[in-house]
Amino acid sequence: MVKIAVVPGSFDPITNGHLDIITRGASIFEQVNVVVLNNSSKNPLFSVEERVKLIEDATAHLPNVRVETFSGLLMDYAENVNASAIIRGLRAVSDFEYEMQITSMNRVLNDEIETFFIMTKNQYSFLSSSIVKEVAKYGGYIGELVPPQVEAALKIKYDTN
Ligand code: PNS
Predict the structure, then answer these.
(1) Segment 94-106, tens digit of pLDDT
(2) Of 30, 84, 115, 145, which has the fewest beta carbons less than 10 angstroms from its beta carbon?
(3) What is the pTM of this model?
């Protein structure tokens, strides 16, 4: 049986930090499902379809990565696809409390699916989709922080061509 790991997130949009975590997860697990979920505390810039397409473009070179979307609980999705693991990225201590809370809640929902944390590369430890959007909005350079298709998509969204 193929061991599936799920990389969940809102990916609004995917950054090189996300890509780093997905790439490293894909080198460990046989199959990685990146799943775009709704984070109820965020108001997304990109539609779910746009986010999926941007992730598909950025991960096209990784044959064991699949991109999906799900409306509902992460653990319901993970059960549906028979996943054995969840992978989340950790950037700094400030991420820890939030991650501990959602991991603990997810464990109440299903304690057979393990959550693994991968530390992001140092060069991406400050990076988030929000900070990228903030810079892109005012026409700042983000070329080293996101895949090329994301840079182009942000220029169109913010009309900063
Ligand atoms: O990229 P993000 O916004 O940090 O990802 C958070 C996300 C989408 C993984 C989280 O909000 C989530 O799992 N949403 C789906 C709903 C859910 O399962 N909530 C229960 C966990 S407390």
Answers:
(1) 899 999 999 999 9
(2) 30
(3) 0.97
